[in-house]
Amino acid sequence: MSVLSPTVDAIRDAARVIREGGLVVLPTETVYGLGCDALNPEAVAKVFEAKGRPQDNPLIVHISGFDQLGTVAASWPPLAEKLAAQFWPGPMTLVLPKLDRVPVVTTAGLDTVAVRVPSHPVMRAVIELAKRPIAAPSANVFMGLSPTKAEDIDPEILVEAEFVLDGGPCELGLESTVVDLSDGGPRILRPGAVSRADIQALVGQPLGHIPPGGVRRSPGQHLRHYAPRSGLRLVSELEPDAPGLTFGEPANDSQVRMPADPKAYGAVLYSALRRLDVSGKGTIQVESPPDRPEWEAVMDRLRKASATLF
Ligand code: TXA
Ligand code: MG
Does the beta carbon of 148 sit less than 6 angstroms from any atom of ligand 1? Predict the structure, then answer.
């Protein structure tokens, strides 16, 4: 198993592996993804297997541009064009009615497909050379922290992938914002790197949240998710001896000072949690960020990370 620099040869190799039904870990601007041919059910099944991901959790399909939307989506409202013009390439995923050629395993049996155009040049080059839409969930084992650096990829994933293309640290560090356009008004199913305010400003109306009993429309929103093994607790102030994330001065070597800006915070959140997680010094305490809309995506991840299974 190797980690390769994204040379022309390595990018070509990645495209070949994808076309042949294999798996490659690919960099995106949000998090690293475990990529495969989205139209190949056997390849997609391998991704579920590698992650230990439940079958009811659909994958995001990555395409090279808006002009490729018709290769996976059956239809889209005018709003999709408007959103794509503003946020693609970038960290926004649209949920739309799917074409029959997208295998049911990719969409976990749903009649919709989640699509985005990533902006990372390495990912884009692989999609273009493979000439395939690439399904890529975050390259972590189920319920773990998404990797934002090549060195953070779990060994369980490394053994299943042909290789990792190292595209450097992910610029945004939080997953894409998932917007459902498949059924009535636009709704945010997963807050993410594009803020609700930015999307609302373009749409010109408040966006809905995950519907009550929304498991069908927003599968994969398991309560515990993005979780460090050590456990995580939101607190108003860190205990001096505890490991954790603080906005203030760290009181010990296992405390990390986090940025006061939500985007900058999101960019380093997973790598900071991983660092504390491997040090294994007990429950990670996280100083609660301000209760403000621009912290929605970070709060979503922190809440999921702190949820217990019981
Ligand atoms: O930033 C990202 O989106 C990253 C990078 C690699 O692109 N990918 C990512 O994939 O976060 P993943 O598999 O970790 O998250 C996919 C989530 C699902 O858990 C679900 O919430 C939503 O996207 N999703 C996918 N397909 C859907 C569909 N048809 N309907 C509703 N939600 C869907
Ligand atoms: Mg994920």
Answer: no
Amino acid at the residue 92:
M
- Report which protein residue has its CA nearest ligand 1's atom 32: 218
Is residue 9 exposed (0-12), middle (13-18) or buried (19+ Cβ within 10 Å)? Answer: exposed
How remote is the CA of residue 214 from the centroid of ligand 1, in Å? Answer: 15
The pTM score is: 0.94
Whether ligand 1 lies within 6 angstroms of the CB of 44 is answered as no
Mean pLDDT of 66-93: 98
CB 34 within 8 A of CB 139: yes
Helix 196-203 × helix 78-87 angle, to 10° = 130
pLDDT at 43: 98
Q: Which residues make up the environment of ion ligand 2, defined by Cβ < 5 Å?
A: 138
- As a whole number, the mean pLDDT across the chain is 93
pLDDT at 310: 42
